[in-house]
Design the sequence.
């Protein structure tokens, strides 16, 4: 069991992913509850660790890694065990898992939801400018891309990779929660999937850690 895991960052749809993976794997870790755009990511201490000045950031001994999807994948590959395996073992299943991870991060998160966050009134419009048309187009693009998820879940599978819960489900669930919060809406088959995934104890534990106390 590692004794040197530290996770920097709370309060966002991306930081919760790393917390969730840590709880799924039953790992002990220290949480540094810094927030984005608060000045806390621009301190000399943090900038030395992460020149990108973004959260989340994971420290594992003398190793550091940023980007939520990369952190989740690292934890899954490094600390999965016979009882909890967040990455498929077979080469083709691994490739399919990788495809899901890239799709979710590129198409659902960065190209859709984060565009809405940058330019929507519920997000960072005060920094990047309010652009209602851009927000509307991004929401529509999200709904179009979600058809890939709808087709997959329509075959009755429990998780994206079938019966095995993987880190791809962590990425997808956080995007679905994000979309609902932005009133984008999700496909019908995603609702029971999301209910099932967010009922997991590790998700509830990660929400508690990731929630900003005000």
Sequence:
């Amino acid at each position: 069991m590692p004794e040197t895991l530290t996770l920097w960052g709370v309060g966002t749809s991306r930081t919760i992913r790393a917390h969730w993976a840590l709880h799924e794997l039953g790992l002990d870790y220290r949480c540094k509850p810094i927030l984005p755009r608060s000045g806390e990511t621009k301190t000399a201490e943090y900038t030395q660790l992460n020149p990108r000045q973004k959260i989340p950031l994971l420290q594992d001994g003398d190793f550091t890694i940023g980007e939520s999807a990369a952190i989740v994948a690292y934890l899954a590959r490094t600390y999965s065990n016979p009882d909890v395996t967040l990455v498929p073992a077979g080469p083709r299943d691994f490739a399919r898992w990788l495809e899901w991870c890239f799709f979710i991060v590129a198409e659902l998160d960065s190209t859709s939801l984060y565009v809405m966050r940058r330019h929507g009134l519920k997000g960072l419009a005060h920094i990047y400018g309010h652009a209602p048309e851009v927000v509307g187009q991004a929401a529509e693009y999200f709904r179009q891309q979600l058809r890939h998820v709808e087709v997959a879940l329509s075959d009755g599978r429990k998780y994206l990779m079938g019966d095995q819960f993987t880190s791809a489900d962590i990425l997808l669930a956080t995007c679905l929660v994000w979309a609902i919060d932005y009133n984008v809406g999700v496909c019908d088959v995603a609702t029971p999937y999301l209910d099932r995934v967010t009922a997991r104890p590790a998700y509830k534990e990660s929400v508690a850690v990731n929630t900003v106390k005000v």
Summary: The beta strands are 5-8, 30-32, 57-60, 63-66. The chain has nine helices and four strands. The two ends are 33 Å apart (CA to CA). The mean pLDDT is 94.
